[in-house]
Amino acid sequence: MALDPNTIAALAAHLEDAELQRREVTKITDDHPDMDWADAYAIQDAIRLRKQARGTRITGLKMGLTSVAKMRQMGVTEPIHGFITDYGAVADGGEIAIDELIHPKIEAEIAFVLKRPLAGPGVHIGDVLAATDIIVPAVEVIDSRYKDFKFDLKSVIADNTSSARYVVGGRARSVAGIDLKHLGVVLEKNGRILTTSAGASVLGHPAASVAMLANMLGAKGREVPADTLILTGGVTEAFLVERGDHINVRYEHLGSVSMHFV
Ligand code: 0L1
Ligand code: MG
Questions:
Q1: Confidence bin at 78 (pLDDT 50/70/90)
Q2: Does 27 fall in a domain?
Q3: Is 90 in the pocket of ligand 1 (CB under 6 A)?
Q4: Would you say 237 and 73 are in contact if contact means Cβ atoms under 8 Å apart?
Q5: Is 244 part of a structural domain of the chain?
Q6: Is the pLDDT assigned to residue 12 strictly greater than 80?
Q7: How many domains, in total, are found in the chain?
Q8: Mean pLDDT, residues 245-261
Q9: Using CA atoms, how far apart are residues 188 and 26, in angstroms rounded to an integer?
Q10: Mutate to test the pocket of ligand 1, among 44, 102, 161, 230 (most ligand atoms within 8 A of CB)
């Protein structure tokens, strides 16, 4: 690691304060160009510990930048992982206050819950499908703390991969009989279709995203736990939302997820 523990702690406080005070900041690699990947995840871990110390419950994990559309949109080449929180959960059909966020964007995702933990190396799609309890449709609301969503991978990892809110809805299903690769998704804003996509947009198969997460965490001596929500990443690029927007996402086999930005 290139950064000392005091700098890690200071950067975690800086980014978490920016989140909680809905304040934009410049990317942290501007002032710390030598920080490495371990530093980036150490800052994210320190943010998680700060939240847990205040009583926040970590409700799940997320993969980010798992679709070609998303990587192209952000000009990056590799998936990353982060965590989601109890206060980030919004009920299906619920309201999301724009004033609590900086510049939210939405992403349609397919979420998994495992019935047993998985840890790499060597986890593959088959392992994930065998270990999956349910899949559910979800919409992630991301909100980079960086001005104009301008960042590099290390800065966005440290910023908990822009995690902000998420909505789970529709129907929970087992994976049996569902062709996740070709599962169709239609994303609507204010009654108009913004885009359509399919499960294969996520690393070729959404279960590949969970496998990658298990392998990334396994390399650090960690695991993907059972009974926790795993957001596998957007099946489309992310779309900016504004006050008044109604979002509805329809998923083949899984029902729909909706929310209203107020
Ligand atoms: O969930 C995501 O794919 C977000 C990853 C971070 C990049 C971004 O803010 O768009
Ligand atoms: Mg996402």
A1: confident
A2: no
A3: no
A4: yes
A5: yes
A6: yes
A7: 1
A8: 98
A9: 32
A10: 161
